[in-house]
Design brief:
By secondary structure, the protein is of the alpha/beta class. Helix content is about 25%, strand content about 30%. The strands form 4 sheets. The chain has an 8-stranded mixed β-sheet, sandwiched between helices. A 7-stranded mixed β-sheet has the order 10-9-8-11-12-13-14. The N and C termini lie far apart (about 55 Å).
């Protein structure tokens, strides 16, 4: 029987819903396990190399199939510790609680290097940098309201593993500060007492949507934002005040202000969001107490952070990351640096004291305004921040850069923007920072077509106990 005949036979045998058992032979970034069933490759997520698993076929094509994990039959050799969180296995958050932190960083370094090796030659890859604290490191959490099962009691927390609807109340999450857990518990109990409904995604009715909590690692300042719809189920017109009365918002604010926290609550907000998507979207925010921002310190500089502006979720890890960026940039005297996708301007301001000028471009206007305030607060006169899409804005900037920093969203850089950056400026060197190595590798392939090559690379573990990792690469033009 020829190879094609075997494949056709296997395709007929392996169908959606069928259940198989197998051993995970390899795991690709971030958590895609490879299991071979005879001559068919099946990709199963949320597994570890060496585990024996039971899975069901969820999708099947000629070249490969996808499976859904049902049960771990045998643990892998690297699983040497017990999970420390009561929500492990149910919550869709941390995936690496059964393996040591030492093993986690080794796996991430290996996965990223394998991806880079596919497209890069003759480059220097440094040992992965660890997070200064592998626990309680997140400075931001977006908790969702819902129920743990259909028509169950109100829940507030994270999505259940593999579910779009079910929510797990994470009362003792270990990757956030203990203050987060106490705030979550207080808000949930308050809403349960008043029998406030959560927003049903399919029926588009209900009130409670999200609870956003942010806390600075250095200043210990806390910002809390309750996100709801602006109308009740039986009403068509917007009535945010009516919803606040029903929630008894003043009572909730008092409870939060009276909590015995390690940090200090500097602002409590109420945001309305009537969009159909499940994302936290700002359609109007009211300050209920204090202010709508807080301050964080990074490498001796202060940064004003607003509710929806981007900031690295691991503040202490960000210091490690930015130290690497400063090292990669090298001599900056009399250089004009472009910081594209600049967020609240952290990288721009860290480089500004030793550069001629830094120009930051960011599409989120709220983040740009915060960046301007930050630069003024830090006494930096050579920073300029522009609000707009990188693709549209860079052609209008009068200055020509000597160096470019790229720190795009997870999905990477738009192909047209990437071409414009490489072809228009032709800078000798660039730094690309990415929280999704697969997007980075795709963009590096294009950059090589435009005459660039990777000189150095490194990982920073900004997300301990999860499969994710931050990657930094130094790119150089071949003709320089």
């Amino acid at each position: 029987m020829g190879f094609l005949d075997k494949m056709l036979e296997m395709e007929e045998k392996m169908k959606k819903g069928q259940i198989y058992e197998g051993v995970v032979e390899k795991v690709g970034f971030p958590n895609k396990g490879i299991v071979w069933i005879e001559d068919r490759k099946v990709v199963v997520k949320d597994v570890l190399e060496g585990q024996k698993i039971r899975f069901s076929i969820s999708k099947c094509r000629k070249d490969k199939c996808e499976g859904r994990l049902l049960e771990i039959l045998e643990m892998a050799e690297v699983e040497t510790q017990k999970p420390f969180c009561s929500h492990f296995g149910v919550c869709g958050g941390c995936a690496f609680q059964t393996i040591s932190y030492e093993e986690q960083v080794k796996r991430k370094e290996k996965q990223v290097k394998e991806l880079l090796d596919e497209v890069c030659e003759d480059y220097q890859f440094s040992e992965i940098k660890r997070s200064p604290n592998p626990y309680s490191y997140r400075n931001k959490m977006e908790f969702s309201f819902g129920d743990e099962y259909k028509d169950g009691p109100l829940a507030l927390g994270l999505h259940k593993k593999g579910s779009f609807y079910d929510i797990v109340t994470v009362k003792e999450c270990h990757i956030v500060d203990g203050d987060f857990n106490l705030i979550l518990k207080t808000v949930l109990e308050h809403m349960k007492e008043r029998e406030i409904s959560y927003y049903h995604k399919m029926q588009h009715r209900g009130i409670l949507r999200h609870l956003l909590v942010r806390k600075a690692a250095k200043t210990q300042e806390i910002l809390i934002d309750l996100v709801t719809t602006s109308r009740e189920e039986e009403r068509d017109e917007k009535d945010l005040k009516g919803i606040q009365e029903k929630i008894e918002i003043k009572g909730l604010v008092k409870k939060l202000c009276d909590l015995s926290l390690n940090g200090k609550v500097v602002g409590i907000l109420h945001t309305q969001n009537d969009s159909l998507s499940d994302a936290v979207k700002n359609e109007g925010t009211e300050i209920l107490y204090g202010q709508d921002f807080f301050f964080e310190e990074i490498l001796g500089l202060q940064f004003k952070i607003t509710p929806f502006s981007f900031f690295q979720t691991n503040s202490l890890g960000a210091e490690v990351l930015y130290e690497i960026v400063r090292d990669y940039v090298g001599e900056t005297k009399e250089k004009v640096i472009f910081d594209l996708y600049s967020g609240t301007g952290t990288i721009a301001q860290i480089l500004a004291p030793v550069a001629k000028k830094v120009v930051g471009v960011e599409i989120v206007e709220e983040a740009v305004e915060a960046a301007k305030v930050n630069a003024e607060k830090n006494g930096l006169k050579n920073c300029v921040f522009i609000a707009g899409d990188v693709l549209k804005v860079i052609g209008e900037i009068e200055e020509k850069p000597d160096f470019i920093i790229l720190d795009p969203p997870r999905e990477g850089i738009h192909p047209k923007a990437l071409e414009k950056i490489a072809a228009q400026f032709k800078v000798p060197k660039m730094i690309y920072i990415s929280c999704k190595p697969t997007s980075l590798v795709r963009d590096l392939e294009k950059l090589q077509e435009y005459g660039y090559t990777v000189e150095r690379g490194c990982c920073v573990d900004m997300f301990p106990y999860t499969p994710h990792v931050e990657t930094v690469v130094l790119i150089q033009r071949k003709d320089t």
